[in-house]
C-alpha cells in the first residue's frame, strides 16, 4: 500500500499542477478575448469562446489520463498504450467497469487515479460553469441596456 502511495501521490501532484496550468491558460484566454472585444461579442464569438474553454479543459483531462496510462505501462501493468489509456480513462472518470484490472501489487493506483479524476473533472466543470455564467450575465446586462430609453 505504501508503495502505491509513493508512486501515485507524485503523479497526482503532477496532474494537479498540470490542471492549474490549463485552468490559467483558459482563464487568461477568456479574459483577454472578452477585454479585447470590450463586451461586444457576437453569438458566434461566444460559442467559439466557450468551445475553446471546453476543449482546453477536456484536453487537460485527457493529458492527465495519458500520464496515468504511461505510469501503468512503466509499471508493467499493460503491454500497449491503448489498453492502458482505456483503463486510465475508466479510473479517471470513476466509471469502475472492472473489465480490465491491474495486478494486486498496483491495484490501489486505480482509486488514487479516481480521486484525482473526480477532483480534476470538478475543476474543469467549474471553469466551464464560470465561463457560461459570465456569458449569461453579459447577455442579461445587454438586454437591460437595450430596454433603456
From TrEMBL:
Domain Potassium channel: 67-132
Highest taxon in the source lineage: Bacteria
Signal peptide: none
Ranges annotated as spanning the membrane: 6-27, 47-75
Pfam families: Ion_trans_2
Keywords recorded for this protein, A-Z: Membrane, Transmembrane, Transmembrane helix
Annotated protein name in UniProt: Potassium channel domain-containing protein
